[in-house]
Design a protein that fits this description.
- There is one protein chain.
- The chain has 134 residues and is an all-alpha fold.
- It contains 6 helices and no strands.
- The protein is elongated.
């Protein structure tokens, strides 16, 4: 009789544990399903209708950043061209000296070297004079 009672107790306990585990598993599966539904909802037309403002703002920011990137890129290429040729913007726009040789050009690599590593001229500021004033 005691063995039967023990077996019944074990079965009841196992049944309870199985029910609890089953409930936990079901809750987990529900959470996962809700996340999947939310993900698909956010990329569906219904999600677009709710988040239309955020969608428009993100597209506007992307468009403005693309335009800014193109403009800055054009400026960089224009400046690089002027450095390579050895001219200034004013000379290029004025077109007076376009067909005359430029006496200040150093060649392609010489111009770039002069821009990246300019010579150091002597300073006109006397450091001792500045220190004495303080």
């Amino acid at each position: 009789i005691r063995k039967r009672k023990r077996k019944r107790k074990r079965k009841r306990k196992e049944n309870r544990e199985n029910k609890e585990n089953k409930e936990k598993r079901e809750k987990r599966e529900e959470k996962i399903l809700k996340k999947k539904e939310a993900f698909h909802y956010s990329y569906s037309l219904a999600g677009f209708a709710e988040n239309r403002g955020a969608f428009i703002v993100s597209w506007m920011v992307g468009l403005l950043s693309t335009i800014a990137t193109v403009m800055v890129g054009a400026l960089v290429f224009w400046t690089s061209y002027l450095i390579s040729v050895g001219r200034t913007t004013y000379e290029k726009i004025k077109l007076e000296k376009q067909f005359t040789p430029n006496p200040f050009t150093r060649g392609f690599f010489g111009n770039w070297f002069y821009v990246c590593c300019p010579p150091q001229y002597p300073s006109y500021i006397n450091p001792r004079y500045v220190i004495e004033d303080l």
